Amino acid sequence: MKIDETHDPARTSWVPGADTHRDFPVQNLPYGIFSEAEGAPRPAVAIGDWLLDLSAISGLLPVELHGATLNALFALPAERRLALRRKLSELLSEPSHRPALMPHLRRQDAVTMHLPAHIGDYTDFYVGIHHANNVGRQFRPDNPLLPNYKHVPIGYHGRTSSIRPSGVPVVRPKGQRKPPEAEAPSYGPTARLDYELELGVWVGRGNDLGEPIPIAEAADHVAGFCLLNDWSARDLQAWEYQPLGPFLAKNFHSTISPWVVTPEALAPFRIAQPQRPQDDPRPLPYLWDDTDQQAGALAVELEVHLLTARMRDEGIAPHRLSHGPASNMYWTVAQILTHHASNGCNLQPGDLLGTGTISAPTEEGFGSLMELAQGGKRPVKLGHGEERSFLQDGDEVILSATARAEGRVPIGFGECRARILPAR
Amino acid sequence: MKIDETHDPARTSWVPGADTHRDFPVQNLPYGIFSEAEGAPRPAVAIGDWLLDLSAISGLLPVELHGATLNALFALPAERRLALRRKLSELLSEPSHRPALMPHLRRQDAVTMHLPAHIGDYTDFYVGIHHANNVGRQFRPDNPLLPNYKHVPIGYHGRTSSIRPSGVPVVRPKGQRKPPEAEAPSYGPTARLDYELELGVWVGRGNDLGEPIPIAEAADHVAGFCLLNDWSARDLQAWEYQPLGPFLAKNFHSTISPWVVTPEALAPFRIAQPQRPQDDPRPLPYLWDDTDQQAGALAVELEVHLLTARMRDEGIAPHRLSHGPASNMYWTVAQILTHHASNGCNLQPGDLLGTGTISAPTEEGFGSLMELAQGGKRPVKLGHGEERSFLQDGDEVILSATARAEGRVPIGFGECRARILPAR
Prior knowledge:
The structure is a homodimer.
Chain A lengths: L30 E5 L6 E6 L2 E4 L17 H5 L2 H16 L4 H4 L3 E3 L4 E3 L7 E4 L3 H11 L15 E3 L5 E3 L4 E2 L2 E4 L8 E4 L3 E2 L2 E7 L18 E8 L2 E2 H7 L13 E3 L6 H4 L3 E2 L18 H6 L1 E2 L1 E8 L1 H6 L4 E7 L7 H9 L10 E3 L14 H4 L7 E2 L5 E2 L7 E8 L7 E2 L3 E6 L3
Parallel strand pairs in A: 6-21, 8-16, 9-26
Antiparallel strand pairs in A: 1-2, 1-5, 2-3, 3-4, 6-7, 10-11, 12-15, 13-14, 13-21, 14-16, 17-18, 19-20, 19-24, 22-23, 24-25, 24-26
């Protein structure tokens, strides 16, 4: 992916505060869907603490954007998306456009953000090898990774109806669980509610049923990225997951960040996929592409913060639970997408792929409480007297991410946050 | 569910051949979406070998039907669907309506049938206990059923994008597989392609995220039934399914029958759920309802036929592979629906639930080739010299179903059929 004038660190924006914004300087330009108290949901681009209403300036744009979803934008060829990006970069940096565009800026904190696309299907993968190791070790100390892990990008289908944008509270789910010491299962609120730190991948152009996607073309099918919290009820999961995988332990709610960070914006932050250990098997040819290996990972730092009800009441800042690189993935985005379509399964614009929990080999980068607190054996101390083995009502989990590279303006993903409400 | 004049065995139709039709006498009246060479997809009701174009007679109906899906119909309260049914029954039985309606009849074999609804999410369950036993025995001879089976209606999410109506050919999928004797996995066309005989359940009225559905209300959330062939690549499945369940082994294609058989049509065919063995655990209260146990099963006979390329060439009739009752389900439809929403997961009109493979304790009722041919150990003889362990290119699998009850006109589901095309 080419680096062009839209990435120029010298480019600045006339939008107040954009140039020093943590997530949305003019080098980012992520898309989303917003609404105001009046009026239908419609497309926007984020700039600093503001957004620009794209439906109001469609006459100025090379691509027509309207409606309540970005699916049509996702379906465009990469070069048309790039044309749109270059135009928006010009509009938001050239001060001469300020008078025409100012009326169409809105403060992000004054609008409601929606899901950016109609999600046809949602698939969650399991590419965070350290997570697979950490979790596998809790179940199978001697043999944490199953024999297929280094050959197959493991994934499974998730639920689309319960995906919500950042900010929508999560009702603590009830469900069946049977702790090992119990004689019989019971039904009630989960006692082991957890988060999972993931990246979400928005599928762009789709493929026809029966037609696989060659890995060399996989990048052309990606429309963007977001943060994804795959909330998990560990007690439900342990009891239900055999033999067909997680179900009610996951499908009660998933939270995504509402801004779609484009592959075009992330071009300067592509790095080589971390090298496989020498004696790991080489993937089968359909999953291997040298170009992808050289630039298939993202130099993105992920962070998780926790804000408890007490911290909120006492004005204590969120506690950072973990931080680590998104490159802790055993398979690249191109590999998971290619694998998904390798049997002819048809992907569609607006499908969402989750990476699976991204963890690290050491605890500062663990991507779930189950890992951090060792399944409840070693509660996490939050520094002001509270501790957590699992999430409590009132807790708020905040995921964030920043892409950084030498000589580049860092760009972020915005927040993916939600608070836990008591079970009903 | 009340039995009314629409079920009267004495009621006949003026539509030619309808009264002796195997599937669609006037007592059935299933809905579907069809199109002709010209014109958009639109709703219809099946009657004999014909269908009635409902968009053309909307002025006569108590419910407005238009558009390319039945989702709005599914979302209606049961009493409004019943009003529509009673009106259609009158229109298609009273000869005085013949002149007005004849122009809006089409032969089913002259139109294209589509998916009846936009499917938001598709979930496949595993309630065929004999299938679970038969398959489990191949993996774990001493302990075929896992400990959760009799407590939890096991289910997992499937893929919506690759669901196709009856008649659309299935491209043999490629994928990764590693036979036990192989040193390493390889990628290629599946060598163990199978079918699975299932019922599909169309979700009607939905529930809000976070709000479970009490089992006493579950029946109100069902809009209809269909047949479902959950095509499966057994070699892909064996290699990929741990620890997160089946994925590419299933999501390359699923076939459903296009006609939605309503709960109203099936009212006379409700029977008691087969009694659980004495020492089976009693389900938890959220999954138990006496009314459901007394009338939660369907007196539906299921059949699977196979037509090979050679049989087609030589004019040999399809070979019946199996037949058995749909009541071979350990959990009722109300139980799987209630369980699905028990964690607050929001179901939506047009969601599709599969029952999982419905099998029998003995081989005449086995619901998949893997069971019939014992994983390839004992190929099925087709009677004219051919045999099958798994499906070959050119094979066509035909699922059918008939509801029967003493003193009632039997009604059927139509066909769910598709032919295997070679891998691309």
